[in-house]
Structures are given as C-alpha cells and as structure tokens.
C-alpha cells in the first residue's frame, strides 16, 4: 500500500530524513515512535504531499509522489490525515466541517455529502453534535470530528500525527477507542504517537525513528520487550 525507498527530506541545508526505506501493507497499523525533532511528522507529511520529497521514492497506493505529474488532490483524497491540533474550521458547524472536502474536492452535492456524513458522526459518537460549532466541543470531541472529517473522503490510508497529545488525559481514551475501531475494521493506518499502550495493543508493527533514520522496526512485542538498539532502549526507558 505504501512503499518508501531511500526517502530523504531537507529543509534548506538541514537533512531531516536521511534515507528511509520501508513498506506498509494494506490493513496494517504502524505506529511511529521516537524523540522530539527526530522527523516523525516530516515522515508522515511526506506520505501525503504536505511536504515535497527531496529524493527517493514514496509510492502510495500506486502513485509515486515524486512524480511531478502526480495529482495532489487525488493523493490527499486517498490519504486522510488527523493532526495534533484538530485544525477544524471554527466558523463552520461540525457537519459543515465534515462535508466541506467531499463537496469541494469530490464534487458531491450538499445533500449527498450530508447523507454520507451522518453515519460517520454516529461512528465517532457525535451524531447529536452535527449542528454545533467546534468551540462548544471538548478536545476529545473535536478530535473525533477531525477523524470523521478525514473519513468523509473515504480514504484508503489514514495518517495520525500525535492525535491525543493536545488532549487532557481523561479525553485520550475516547479518541484512541475510535482509532482502535478503525484499525479493527481494516483501515491502513500510520500513527505517530506517544501512547505506548496503544502502540503495544493495536499496532502490527512499530517504527522507531531517531535523527531521521529508522533505527529499528518490528512487531510491538519485539520493540517493547526486546529492543536491540541502544537508542531505542534509552528512549523506552524515558517514556515507559
Ligand atoms: P515532535 O515529536 O516534536 O513533533 P518530530 O519527530 O515530529 O518532533 P519533525 O517535526 O518532523 O519532528 O521535525 C524534524 C526536524 O525538522 C526538526 O529539527 C525540525 O526543526 C525540522 N523541521 C520540520 N519542519 C521544518 C520546516 N518547515 N522548516 C525547517 N525545518 C523544519
Ligand atoms: Mg511531530
């Protein structure tokens, strides 16, 4: 579903991703862990063209993102993304937030988009909140709207960048629960997270990134119970 070959990304003179090669399979849930500044967000953003790739290949659902002819909107509609800070439009109702992209990008009528949005809001437990504005929601509710909004494009892949890091601790669980359901339904997911419990329980594989390199990758039991690289051991001793 996603193939990454020698992915490099520089900002000016600074090389942030230093040759990442990996593969993510259909229906797989991969968690990306690593220290602050290691390149986790940059890696994720390279998977849906929020950053352009400096060199290497990033093949997502058959499209090589380094091909200048690749259609950004097409890629983004196949790859949904959820951010740490929700990024909802404050001046639009929950329903309008969810239907905006299907109307603008996919050309659905308002009625069609709203019909499709309702079950998604139900799915994230917010069927009753369709007509309220984001301001009146808790952080956990906002993030669940953001998930529904991403799902409204009917993506094949979902990227999550620390989706629970901005939440009060008691609201983390409700968001992780929605993500877990998605995983169980077979969504292909790449999740940058500090929630090691989620990574252990839900992911099929864990990638440990440090200084722009995938230092270690493996099944969660291997990564958490039998880490090999000293940097991974040091990282885990701080976060577990
Ligand atoms: P965190 O856990 O804090 O979110 P991260 O692992 O997601 O960190 P990135 O955001 O990918 O790290 O950043 C990796 C490095 O790239 C950092 O040194 C950061 O300063 C740099 N960087 C990221 N985006 C840009 C940008 N647009 N311009 C210049 N440098 C950037
Ligand atoms: Mg980040």
TrEMBL record:
> What name goes with this protein?
ABC transporter
The record's SUPFAM superfamilies line, in alphabetical order, gives: P-loop containing nucleoside triphosphate hydrolases
Q: Which GO-annotated molecular functions does the record name?
A: ABC-type amino acid transporter activity; ATP binding; ATP hydrolysis activity
Which residue ranges does the record assign to the ABC transporter domain?
A: 2-236
Q: Which CDD domains match?
A: ABC_HisP_GlnQ
Report if keyword Iron is assigned. Answer: no
State the UniProt keywords alphabetically: ATP-binding, Nucleotide-binding, Transport
Q: Which organism is it from?
A: Alkalihalophilus marmarensis DSM 21297
Which domain of life does the protein's organism represent? Bacteria
Concerning PROSITE patterns, the annotation shows: ABC_TRANSPORTER_1, ABC_TRANSPORTER_2
Keyword Protein biosynthesis assigned:
no
Matching entries from InterPro entries are given as: AAA+_ATPase, ABC_ATPase_HisP-typ, ABC_transporter-like_ATP-bd, ABC_transporter-like_CS, MetN_ABC_transporter-like, P-loop_NTPase
């Amino acid at each position: 579903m996603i193939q990454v070959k020698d992915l490099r990304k520089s900002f000016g003179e600074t090389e942030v991703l230093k040759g990442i090669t990996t593969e993510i399979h259909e229906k797989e849930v991969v968690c990306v862990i690593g220290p602050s500044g290691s390149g986790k967000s940059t890696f994720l953003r390279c998977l849906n063209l929020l950053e352009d790739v400096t060199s290497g290949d990033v093949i997502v659902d058959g499209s090589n993102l380094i091909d200048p002819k690749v259609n950004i909107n097409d890629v983004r509609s196949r790859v949904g993304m959820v951010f740490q800070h929700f990024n909802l439009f404050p001046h639009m109702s929950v329903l309008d937030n969810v239907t905006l992209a299907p109307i603008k990008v996919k050309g659905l009528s308002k009625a069609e988009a709203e019909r499709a949005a309702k079950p998604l809001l139900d799915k994230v437990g917010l069927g009753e909140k369709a007509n309220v504005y984001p301001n009146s929601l808790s952080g956990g509710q906002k993030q669940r709207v953001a998930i529904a909004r991403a799902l409204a494009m009917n993506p094949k892949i979902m990227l999550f960048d620390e989706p629970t890091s901005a939440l009060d601790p008691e609201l983390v669980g409700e968001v992780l629960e929605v993500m877990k359901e998605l995983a169980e339904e077979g969504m292909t997911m790449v999740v940058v997270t500090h929630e090691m419990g989620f990574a252990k329980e839900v992911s099929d594989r864990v990638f440990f990134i440090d200084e722009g390199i995938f230092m270690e990758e493996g099944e969660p039991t291997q990564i958490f119970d039998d880490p090999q690289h000293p940097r991974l051991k040091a990282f885990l001793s701080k976060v577990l």
